[in-house]
Here is the input.
Amino acid sequence: MKRLILASILMLSGLPAFSAPGGGFEASETPPPPHKQDSGIKGSEDAKESTVKMAINNDRNSWVTLEGNIIKKTAEDHYIFRDKTGVIAISLKDDKWNGQKVTPKDLVSISGRLTKEKGNTVIQVEQIRIQ
Here is the structure.
Protein backbone atom coordinates (compact mmCIF):
# COMPACT_ATOMS: atom_id res chain seq x y z
CA MET A 1 0.00 0.00 0.00
CA LYS A 2 2.83 2.40 0.89
CA ARG A 3 4.51 1.71 -2.48
CA LEU A 4 1.27 2.46 -4.32
CA ILE A 5 0.90 5.76 -2.49
CA LEU A 6 4.54 6.70 -3.17
CA ALA A 7 4.20 5.84 -6.87
CA SER A 8 1.00 7.91 -7.07
CA ILE A 9 2.69 10.90 -5.44
CA LEU A 10 5.66 10.67 -7.82
CA MET A 11 3.36 10.42 -10.86
CA LEU A 12 1.32 13.43 -9.75
CA SER A 13 4.43 15.48 -9.00
CA GLY A 14 5.76 14.97 -12.52
CA LEU A 15 8.90 13.20 -11.30
CA PRO A 16 9.72 9.87 -12.91
CA ALA A 17 9.06 7.02 -10.48
CA PHE A 18 11.41 4.70 -12.38
CA SER A 19 13.74 5.03 -15.34
CA ALA A 20 11.54 4.70 -18.39
CA PRO A 21 12.88 2.24 -20.95
CA GLY A 22 12.94 2.82 -24.67
CA GLY A 23 14.45 6.29 -24.95
CA GLY A 24 17.15 7.21 -27.42
CA PHE A 25 18.03 9.05 -30.57
CA GLU A 26 15.79 8.94 -33.64
CA ALA A 27 17.50 10.24 -36.76
CA SER A 28 14.24 10.70 -38.66
CA GLU A 29 14.28 14.51 -38.54
CA THR A 30 16.58 17.15 -40.00
CA PRO A 31 18.28 19.44 -37.46
CA PRO A 32 17.79 23.20 -37.73
CA PRO A 33 20.64 25.17 -39.31
CA PRO A 34 23.22 26.44 -36.78
CA HIS A 35 22.16 30.08 -37.09
CA LYS A 36 18.59 29.13 -36.05
CA GLN A 37 19.66 27.52 -32.77
CA ASP A 38 18.56 29.53 -29.77
CA SER A 39 18.27 28.22 -26.26
CA GLY A 40 15.09 30.10 -25.50
CA ILE A 41 16.40 30.80 -22.00
CA LYS A 42 16.42 34.45 -21.08
CA GLY A 43 18.62 35.60 -18.24
CA SER A 44 20.71 38.51 -17.14
CA GLU A 45 22.97 40.17 -19.65
CA ASP A 46 26.11 39.12 -17.78
CA ALA A 47 25.27 35.41 -17.68
CA LYS A 48 27.82 33.36 -19.58
CA GLU A 49 26.56 30.72 -22.00
CA SER A 50 28.65 27.57 -22.43
CA THR A 51 29.23 26.65 -26.05
CA VAL A 52 30.91 23.86 -27.99
CA LYS A 53 33.68 26.29 -28.97
CA MET A 54 34.38 27.04 -25.30
CA ALA A 55 34.07 23.38 -24.22
CA ILE A 56 36.69 22.18 -26.73
CA ASN A 57 39.25 24.45 -25.05
CA ASN A 58 38.39 23.37 -21.48
CA ASP A 59 40.62 21.07 -19.45
CA ARG A 60 40.11 17.31 -19.31
CA ASN A 61 37.51 16.28 -16.68
CA SER A 62 35.84 19.71 -16.79
CA TRP A 63 32.08 19.61 -16.22
CA VAL A 64 30.10 21.28 -19.01
CA THR A 65 26.46 21.95 -19.78
CA LEU A 66 25.55 22.76 -23.38
CA GLU A 67 22.39 23.40 -25.35
CA GLY A 68 21.99 22.36 -28.95
CA ASN A 69 21.00 19.38 -31.09
CA ILE A 70 22.19 15.81 -31.43
CA ILE A 71 22.51 15.61 -35.18
CA LYS A 72 23.95 12.18 -35.89
CA LYS A 73 24.65 8.76 -34.38
CA THR A 74 28.18 7.59 -35.19
CA ALA A 75 28.46 4.36 -33.15
CA GLU A 76 26.53 2.44 -30.50
CA ASP A 77 26.73 5.10 -27.76
CA HIS A 78 28.45 7.88 -29.73
CA TYR A 79 26.80 10.90 -31.35
CA ILE A 80 27.60 14.29 -32.85
CA PHE A 81 26.25 17.27 -30.90
CA ARG A 82 26.00 20.73 -32.48
CA ASP A 83 25.27 24.20 -31.21
CA LYS A 84 25.58 27.53 -33.01
CA THR A 85 29.38 27.58 -32.48
CA GLY A 86 30.40 24.13 -33.67
CA VAL A 87 30.22 20.36 -33.26
CA ILE A 88 31.58 17.96 -30.64
CA ALA A 89 31.51 14.20 -30.12
CA ILE A 90 29.46 12.92 -27.19
CA SER A 91 29.12 9.55 -25.51
CA LEU A 92 25.61 8.88 -24.22
CA LYS A 93 24.83 5.51 -22.64
CA ASP A 94 21.35 3.95 -22.91
CA ASP A 95 20.58 4.43 -19.21
CA LYS A 96 20.98 8.23 -19.48
CA TRP A 97 18.06 8.75 -21.93
CA ASN A 98 15.41 8.23 -19.20
CA GLY A 99 12.85 7.17 -21.79
CA GLN A 100 13.19 10.38 -23.81
CA LYS A 101 13.01 10.08 -27.61
CA VAL A 102 15.24 12.73 -29.19
CA THR A 103 15.35 13.75 -32.85
CA PRO A 104 17.80 16.15 -34.54
CA LYS A 105 15.09 18.88 -34.39
CA ASP A 106 14.85 18.68 -30.58
CA LEU A 107 16.76 21.30 -28.62
CA VAL A 108 18.43 19.48 -25.74
CA SER A 109 20.55 20.35 -22.75
CA ILE A 110 23.40 17.96 -22.00
CA SER A 111 25.68 17.87 -18.98
CA GLY A 112 28.82 15.81 -18.53
CA ARG A 113 32.58 15.57 -18.25
CA LEU A 114 35.09 16.30 -20.97
CA THR A 115 37.53 13.61 -21.92
CA LYS A 116 40.38 13.76 -24.38
CA GLU A 117 40.58 10.60 -26.49
CA LYS A 118 43.34 10.29 -29.09
CA GLY A 119 43.46 14.05 -29.54
CA ASN A 120 39.67 14.39 -29.74
CA THR A 121 37.46 16.03 -27.14
CA VAL A 122 34.44 13.94 -26.13
CA ILE A 123 31.72 14.74 -23.61
CA GLN A 124 30.70 11.80 -21.42
CA VAL A 125 27.05 12.79 -20.97
CA GLU A 126 25.56 12.17 -17.53
CA GLN A 127 22.26 14.00 -18.08
CA ILE A 128 20.16 14.94 -21.10
CA ARG A 129 16.96 16.96 -21.09
CA ILE A 130 14.71 18.10 -23.93
CA GLN A 131 14.21 21.86 -23.72
